[in-house]
Amino acid sequence: MARNNWVWAEDNKGQALTPGLTGAWPTSWPQTLQAISKDDPYRSLSEWVRDEYGYVKCETTGDTSHFNQCHHTRAPPFLEFKWADLFRNASNLSDTIYTLTPEEQVAPLWSLVPEMIKLAQGERNAGMAGYNQDPKEQIPDSPIAIDSRGCEK
After folding, report:
1. Domain assignment present for 16
2. Residue 102: closest CA among 35, 42, 46
3. FRET partner for 7 with CA separation of 20 to 30 A, picked from 20, 27, 32, 94?
């Protein structure tokens, strides 16, 4: 699965899962579905930035299919997770974000959206998959809004 890029080999804090002795299956990978379900708060932040077109997830049909950069291309697997890692490393939030409930994470993460949009659209990220090549034109029809649980309204 890892060789085919069908799994994301990081935990919910962006730490790499280490390979086992044979290199075939990481020994640090969760052994149960419940353990896999640990929330990565920066993945939520990444989704909100993407929804504001801080970066672009190209699809062959849908909201981004008409963007020039998306003609005949699809986003690579785990695009949101890659951007989440960038935002995690740039964030000034402490590790206490991981101890909060999803509802408690919303306010501190939502406050980072404008800063992370600027970061995502910065020239130094031009080589990243999903980089918004035309942020003045490639914008959402209307800004997103979220409720207290972080769900889009």
Report:
1. no
2. 42
3. 94
